[in-house]
Amino acid sequence: MTEQQAPTRGERSDARRNREKIAAAAMAELALDPRASMAQIAQRAGVSRVTLYGHVATRADLLTQVLAQHVSDAVAALAECSYDQGGAAMVNELVRCSWDLMASLGPLLAEAEAELGAASVRHAHGGVLARVDELISQGMAEGHLASTQPSQWLSYAYFSLLSGAAHLAATPQGRAEVVEELIESVTVLFQAQT
To answer: At what angle do helices 126-141 and 87-116 cross, to 10 degrees?
Structure first.
């Protein structure tokens, strides 16, 4: 939960409910239309624009909060996956655990980069990158990944591949096709042992 989202001491229950409705509406509306206006988000949340701006100062702040929630969801998804087999099986599991969230974020990611800057978006994904770096380091230490590149470089390259693939996969049918290509590309990038 970001600082802006954290409940304040003595917060009224209606204010808390409004904050939660705004967060949920922002996630849903921006997933459908990354260029959605604050008025559209307020309407989806069932609150006035005044109420919305009482909780979030700017659209950039709202995008930052949505991105933070997405990253939190992605870290949780990565934690739930099993990477015990190593090598190509680990790459397959990593991509499949990451892909649905990243594919659904594709258009929003482009909008966030345009409004917040690529460096801010990359920084926001620090938790995801740290988890991927940890998995890569483990795979390299166990001899399942043969790349001589540093694990941090590989985690950034992985994120870039996912981002690019998400932009290509605009439809659910496209997503299914892209994921297989993505697994193949990441397997080569990591030099995963089969």
So the answer is: 160
